[in-house]
Amino acid sequence: GNQYVTMAKQIVSRETVAIDMPAGPSELAVVADHGSNPSFIASDLLSQAEHGPDSQVLLLTDSADMIDRVKLELENQLKELPRKEIASKALDNSKMILLNSQQEIMALVNAYAPEHLIIVTENYAELAEEVRNAGSVFLGDYTPESAGDYASGTNHTLPTNGWAHSYSGINMDSFYKKITFQEISRYGLVNIGDAIMTMAEAEELHAHSRAVSIRLSTKDND
User: Fold this and answer.
1) Options 27, 51, 73, 116, the catalytic residue
2) Which terminal residue of the chain has fewer beta carbons within 10 Å of its beta carbon, N or C?
3) Residue 154, helix vs strand vs coil
């Protein structure tokens, strides 16, 4: 969604309908190394930048040469876009960041928690194991983010603005309301009763504790 979708969802949620999360402007981070394809990277950055002027895209790499090559590709590809004015404004909000190592790159990825993350390094499978916070991850040269939007089967209603630290994208669980049931035997209550009473008394909720002790002190009628 965009700011209009987010506002609509928030208005609806004030009544009776639960929503998943407030989705902000689109985000993309690309992790690249010296051997990555700069034309592919530029196309991915622009595919998110054209969403709107408030979108943000990042290139994270340990190769200064890669930054220069991607900049050149961006200039060339931007000229051909019908939405080049929008994409250009989004690029003004965006960054290409040179880091010292892949460890620093992945630390920044997990701190930023991007909505979309593309990893196109030679060791992309290895780096994928280090991802802790991201909405959806795209691996290798032939997995553009637009595939996730339209055809590869993953949901693209994803957390933005750092919410990937706490939220997943929309999935089947998002449409379920769950109720828990429990039944404990006398033997089971004997086993966990002390823990219940200890915690209840620590909170000075003595009736909570007594609800257990009164059962354990009563002779079993079974």
Assistant:
1) 116
2) C
3) coil
Q: Which superfamily, per CATH, for 3-175?
A: Nitrogenase molybdenum iron protein domain (3.40.50.1980)
pLDDT (tens digit, 9 = 90+) per residue, 110-169?
Answer: 999 999 999 999 999 999 999 999 999 999 999 999 999 999 988 888 988 898 998 888
Q: In what order do the strands lie in the sheet with 27-32?
A: 95-98, 56-61, 27-32, 116-119, 136-139
- Sorted by where each begins, the domain ranges of the chain are 3-175, 186-216
Contacts of 35 by beta carbon, 8 Å cutoff, 6+ apart: 121, 122
Which of 115, 122, 130, 156 is catalytic? The answer is: 115
Q: What pTM was estimated for this model as a whole?
A: 0.82
Q: Does the annotation count 50 as an active-site position?
A: no
Active site residue 116: yes
* Residue ranges of the chain whose pLDDT lies below 70: 1-2, 21-22, 220-222
